């Protein structure tokens, strides 16, 4: 998406242009290495394949407050030592998981 607009309304014509700032960056590491979803009604991951360049001991998927999680043909590498590869908190229903 590209928007070459001036960022002013008609009422702003003639005023000095204000620089546009980008959104702030939240640089905290996520609690999972693959997919993290929070406060979602329904999440479908269909025909998704995750891969790692080196071992990561966080879960592949973590959800919080998801109503329905559908994992159809969802593949990810198993990392030795990771007990819970898919972590769900306040999940209503999960389908298609291996």
Summarize the structure.
The chain has 98 residues and is mainly β.
Topology:
Blueprint: E1 35-49, E2 61-75, E3 86-95
Parallel strand pairs: 1-2, 2-3
Name the shape in a single word.
extended
| Physical arrangement of strands within the biggest beta sheet | 1-2-3
Poorly predicted tracts of residues? none
Oligomer: single chain
Per DSSP, the total helix count is 0
Structural class call reads mainly beta
- The radius of gyration over CA amounts to 20 Å
Largest sheet: 3 strands, parallel
> In which range does the helix fraction lie?
under 10%
Describe the fold and architecture.
The protein is mainly beta. Helices cover 0% and strands 41% of the residues. It is built from no helices and 3 strands. It has strands at 35-49, 61-75, 86-95. The chain starts with 34 loop residues before the first strand and ends with a strand.
Keywords:
98 residues; 3-stranded parallel sheet; mainly beta
């Amino acid at each position: 998406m590209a928007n070459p607009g001036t960022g002013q309304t008609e009422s702003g014509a003639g005023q000095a242009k204000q620089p546009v700032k980008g959104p702030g960056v939240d640089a905290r590491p996520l609690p999972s290495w693959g997919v993290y979803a929070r406060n979602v009604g329904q999440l479908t991951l269909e025909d998704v394949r995750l891969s790692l360049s080196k071992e990561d001991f966080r879960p592949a998927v973590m959800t919080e407050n998801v109503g329905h999680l559908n994992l159809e043909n969802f593949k990810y590498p198993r990392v030795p030592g990771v007990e819970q590869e898919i972590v769900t908190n306040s999940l209503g229903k999960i389908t298609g998981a291996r």
